[in-house]
Design a protein that fits this description.
The structure holds two protein chains of two kinds. The longest helix of chain A has 18 residues, at 188-205. By secondary structure, chain A is α/β, with parallel strands linked by helices. In chain A, α3 crosses α4 (128-141), α3 (112-123) runs parallel beside α5 and α5 (158-170) packs parallel to α6. Chain A is globular. Chain A has helices at residues 55-62, 89-94, 112-123, 128-141, 158-170, 188-205, 216-222, 240-245, 250-257, and strands at 6-19, 24-39, 44-48, 70-75, 78-79, 95-98, 176-180, 208-213, 225-230, 233-239, 308-311, 314-316. Chain A has a domain at 251-329. By secondary structure, chain B is mainly alpha-helical. Chain B has one domain (25-289): Orthogonal Bundle (MetI-like fold), CATH 1.10.3720.10. Helix content of chain B is 73%, strand content 0%. Chain B has eleven helices and no strands. In chain B, 42% of the residues are buried. Mean pLDDT of chain B is 87; it is low at 1-8. Classes of the chains: A alpha/beta, B mainly alpha. Chains A and B meet through α2, β6 and α3 of A and α8 and α9 of B.
Chain lengths: 329, 296
């Protein structure tokens, strides 16, 4: 098997809650609590889950904005979870990210040309003219005017700003593009345009995508594989088509049932989860989903389910799910 | 973001014109900017229209004309050595603006980088820098300035240094707060993620976006700094005779307050007007740089 583009092994990311005069940590927020994840080269992987489930934290660990509390992260085969900042050159050049908020993700005091040119200025020794022509090239690729480089972010709409952010992320021709809720802050029409653009860019540029979203429609459109997270853990993972057709985890089923439907031909039953997401400081024992699970059994409160393979490449972490025996993953 | 999307391109000229519009929108701000402008012109052109520059810059005296009340010949009257007060007060404008600019400038030069580093790096560095500012801030600024000025020796330059030493912690604090709120913004995260060196992030992304509050504060402080330096000179720790510094003039004038009230009145008024004007400008700038009014 080839080395994955990015790979997490038993990654934990705990944030301390400090209190008292000495600012000692009194508790830990377990934002990511033991996650295994591998994104293959050329794949488009979606990471879904509710707000606060740790998906954004996980990608920030994968890109080493945070040092993981425990576990290993490899990017293109190289260990990056704990190495010194100076050794992150490949990661910083080959992995880029597009943020959710198209307003604050662009420096309001820099013009668009400077914004898009910055990765080039940091990683290459292009002349001013070469740099300008690269910036212009990527602007056109994004469907923006080449003269837009002299304008400032506040002169653009949300959708246009997100294009600028994508241009900045792609100008170095990275191998991995992380999209953190790329369309959730913009209007529906721009959303559709951005998604189309992202899809065609992926084929054109041969980039690996890792998309974080709470919007299953976005993920189903953009991603071949999908990973569902709940309270810092992966609960289900598989090809998008398998997961959508046959969601194995009760939580995934609840998420699926919440997708709005335009046709009423097939009346689907809506699974409404009761209660709120429990605190990540004191996660419930056993299966973390059991207090809200409509299908819980007595075992669920005691035993923590592992992520096991149910069918070819389709994994689930649920005690009641039909898994293949003897596969420790 | 507060601007409509179809606003024409903000060329530099456009920006200046827009700033002009915002300044003239509020009449008090207009007055403030107007007075500051006049003060600047007076300071620059002092040698051109002052009748007795030798009374201001040289130690020339004219004891025969001592303590004359204001008249056509001596607009503001004369002092106990017969020097033309008008010339001296006008020249004092120069000194005061110089003190304001240099002392505030020096304080900014020390305070802003420290606040930037403390806020951006956080952790141990932040802890050390902030504890040092705490120590400085636990003294009343005038007292601290007096102590430093006394330590450095009596001169106008030392007074300016003393004031800067008393003032920088405020800029460090203000800067640190702004920087901390900017540090977590996605455009800073984006820069870190693309491998931009920390120094470049601090200057190109954080510093340029956190200067507005500091600039406002600096313009407000301009007045207080002029007052503090006048106080130092009044106490004999700042400007030395025969320098026409307002505080120094006042400290001599108080001896003649009953016989020659104009002697105190004119330098006092000059100080009041100057400080007031800079406060108005500061308030105006605060409004102009407010993101609700505009994104500067």
């Amino acid at each position: 098997m080839t080395t994955p583009m990015v790979e997490a092994q038993a990654v934990k990311m705990y944030f301390p809650i400090r209190a008292g005069v000495l600012q000692r940590p009194v508790a830990w927020v377990r934002a990511v609590d033991g996650v295994d994840l591998a994104v293959r080269k050329g794949q488009s992987m979606g990471l879904v889950g509710e707000s606060g489930c740790g998906k954004s934290t996980l990608v920030r660990v994968l890109l080493r904005l945070y040092r993981p509390t425990a576990g290993r992260v490899r990017f293109m085969g190289q260990e990056i979870g704990h190495c010194p900042d100076g050794k992150l050159g490949v990661l910083r050049k080959e992995a880029q990210m597009v943020f959710q908020d198209p307003y604050w993700s662009l420096n309001p005091r820099m013009n668009v040309g400077e914004i898009i040119g910055e990765p080039l200025a940091v990683h290459t020794r292009l002349s001013r003219r070469e740099l300008a022509s690269r910036v212009e090239g990527v602007l056109t690729m994004m469907g923006l005017a080449s003269g837009d480089g002299r304008r400032f972010p506040h002169e653009f709409s949300g959708g246009q700003r997100q294009r600028i952010a994508i241009a900045r992320a792609l100008v170095l021709r990275p191998r991995l593009l992380v999209l953190d809720e790329p369309t959730s802050a913009i209007d529906a029409l721009s959303q559709a345009q951005i998604l189309n653009l992202l899809n065609s860019l992926r084929q054109e540029l041969d980039v690996t995508y890792l998309t974080v979203s709470h919007d299953l429609a976005v993920v189903s459109y953009l991603c071949e594989a999908i990973t569902v997270m709940y309270l810092g853990k992966v609960v289900e993972h598989g090809l998008t088509r398998d997961v959508f057709r046959n969601p194995l985890h009760p939580y995934t089923r609840a998420l699926m049932s919440a997708i709005p439907q335009f046709t009423s031909a097939v009346k689907r039953e809506r699974i409404v989860l009761s209660g709120a997401v429990p605190s990540a400081v004191t996660p419930p024992p056993g299966c973390r989903f059991h207090p809200r699970c409509p299908e819980r059994t007595d075992r669920c409160a005691q035993e923590e389910p592992g992520l096991l393979e149910a069918a070819g490449g389709h994994h689930v972490a649920c005690l009641s799910a039909p898994v293949q025996p003897g596969d420790p993953h | 973001m507060a601007l409509p999307a179809n606003r024409p391109r903000p060329a530099v000229l456009e920006q200046i014109r827009y700033s002009g519009y915002l300044i003239t929108k509020n009449s008090l701000t207009t007055v403030g900017f107007g007075i500051v402008l006049v003060l600047l012109v007076i300071a620059l052109l002092a040698p051109v229209f002052v009748p007795h520059p030798e009374h201001a810059v040289l130690g020339t005296t004219n004891v025969a004309e001592a303590l004359r009340p204001p008249s056509g010949r001596y607009l503001f009257g004369t002092d106990e050595l017969g020097r033309d007060l008008f010339s001296r007060v006008i020249y004092g404008t120069r000194i005061s603006l110089q003190i304001g600019t240099l002392a505030v400038g020096l304080a900014l030069l020390i305070g802003v980088p420290l606040g930037l580093v403390a806020g951006y790096l956080g952790g141990f560095v932040d802890e050390v820098i902030m504890r040092v500012t705490d120590i400085f801030l636990s003294f009343p600024p005038l007292l601290l300035a007096i102590a430093v000025a006394a330590l450095l020796g009596r001169s106008l330059t030392n007074a300016m240094i003393a004031i800067a030493i008393a003032w920088w912690p405020w800029y460090t604090r203000l800067m640190r707060g702004t920087v901390i709120s900017l540090r977590e913004k996605p455009f800073v995260e984006a820069a870190r993620m693309m491998g931009t060196p920390a120094t470049r992030i601090m200057v190109r992304h954080v510093l340029v976006n956190s200067l507005s509050p500091v600039i406002v504060q600096a313009s407000l402080d301009f007045g207080s700094v002029i007052l503090t330096s006048a106080a130092l000179s009044f106490l004999g720790l700042g400007a030395q005779p025969p320098q026409p510094e307002w505080g120094l003039i006042l400290s001599t004038a108080r001896n003649y307050f009953l016989v020659a009230p104009w002697y105190s009145f004119f330098p006092g008024m000059a100080m009041v007007i100057t400080v007031l004007a800079f406060n108005l400008v500061g308030d105006g700038l605060r409004e102009i740089t407010d993101p609700k009014t505009r994104r500067l």
